[in-house]
Protein: LacI family transcriptional regulator
Amino acid sequence: MTVSRALNNPKIVRAETVNKVMEAVRATGYIPNMLAGGLASRRSKLIAVVVPQINNNMFVDTIQAISDELAARGYHMLLCVAGDTNESEAEIVATLLSRRPDGIVLTGIHHTPELKRLLLNATIPIVEIWDLTPTPLDMLVGFSHESIGNAIGHYLLGKGHSRFGLVWTEDARAGLRKKGIYDVIQKQQGSHAREAIVPWPATLALGRQGLSDLLANGEDFDAIICSSDTLAQGVMIEAAARGLAVPKTLAVMGFGDLDFAAHCTPSITTVRVDRWKIGTDAAAMLAEKIEGKSVPSPIVDIGFSLIERESA
Amino acid sequence: MTVSRALNNPKIVRAETVNKVMEAVRATGYIPNMLAGGLASRRSKLIAVVVPQINNNMFVDTIQAISDELAARGYHMLLCVAGDTNESEAEIVATLLSRRPDGIVLTGIHHTPELKRLLLNATIPIVEIWDLTPTPLDMLVGFSHESIGNAIGHYLLGKGHSRFGLVWTEDARAGLRKKGIYDVIQKQQGSHAREAIVPWPATLALGRQGLSDLLANGEDFDAIICSSDTLAQGVMIEAAARGLAVPKTLAVMGFGDLDFAAHCTPSITTVRVDRWKIGTDAAAMLAEKIEGKSVPSPIVDIGFSLIERESA
DNA sequence: TTGTAAGCGTTATCAG
DNA sequence: CTGATAACGCTTACAA
Structure:
């Protein structure tokens, strides 16, 4: 017991005793066993993070930020890939719970009813990220995809565009942004939109393909809206190959403000969200709540900004 | 005990009993406690993965592959960021060991002596990745950065280049590739090289900056070699801004074969390594060894291929 | 400031 | 095929 105290809370142990313990630790190569510690204390110092995908330009910065913030606070991160369906997420979280994490980060706000029950039953702090709702399971850090869609719609209508093509992936959150766009442009007389749906995750090749598909029927577009900057860049590459001037003939709009968006030629008009802040805030809120501090605002809308550049 | 068996190895329990157990599990909302299980069985079903950085175009595909392979085999992944110094890695792995992972994936082959001792003492399976050595701590999946450097050097000399500029980050593995390049080009009469060192991780802006720095002294180059495709793209953007024709005036060479490399204009000549295979193999080898199967070849060189495109 | 006893929720082992 | 018992290595709660 004295060793346990010397290691975890040396202040309450006589300095001389602490030294003796440390010496013994060195001499024997002792490594604490957090499985045993977690079992006894019911605190695992483990945070489970569930994302649809790791190698994704969007989530990866958030994951990095979570990891950094957690490490600084003495937690480890259990990272799980859930794919893009609620069912796979539910299955994965169920097994995750057997690790007795002190908290969970979930991507998105849509979960199966069973998962919700499971999670609320477990009574551990939860942060949902990358989306927005007034009724999260527990806490939330994100932004409104519909608002972003609205902003994109207004922006492009304001520029006088009316013949829209969407190059879009079908993941849950992209769907919300699309809805936001349609809500705005369908109110505008004479505007219309066509879609090229591409698989998720997005690549440049899929962007090129998307534009090709849109143009295949001989239809005419004045603005292409993409569900990510990667697709937008692909669209611009295809446009260049076809001799379509961007933005003169064809405006192109992205989402994400990835590194290359500012440096492409033409640079990509897009929507920026602070992906790092999502992670930092989520981790911090979780840690605070775990440690019994009150979290004043459990719902954080980090907002977004539309970045006007050359492509639209 | 019967419950434990019914859950973990139902075959050895009477079907009727298994059903009774499952029913009770459902009725009570029972969730197993793997902390207790791991403590008792000395198997945590946990793999620790240590990378210098998560939000890195190179490692992220490997991490995804590790995660996928581990999930398929019933393991969870503890993901830790170690930065680019051996000291921070040692510190992080030391705390990681207290989770009693069944195996560890380490990025790189250079570790502090204390860490090596710690790891060998722990006698758990280890895979080092993203580098090559005949003497890994345990197992290894990677490739030779020096060989890649050699290949780049030979390729560019073969194209008749002799005035080299390097836009380079200073991480450990990039340093090896640089050495490989110098070993080749310094043997060539009349060739010379200058370097622009940029911080890690690489961005397009740093690539642009790198080329600007190289050109600042009025020196003349016929080939720019970059430690990553991202830098190469940045260099090409800067070259375009300065009216330097790529590859006519200036050849540009990257590393990684990231998605955009094939789609840039001009497309980027680069070196491809199978980042996914590194992860899949590493996870598979670890799992096999943990489960007592023999791993016939503990050192896997996944090789590389130089992809000739337009930029060089 | 340090020590004692009990227990955290599993699994290994052996017995039936 | 099922059950009893004793760990696993720590922390809580209380005592000294």
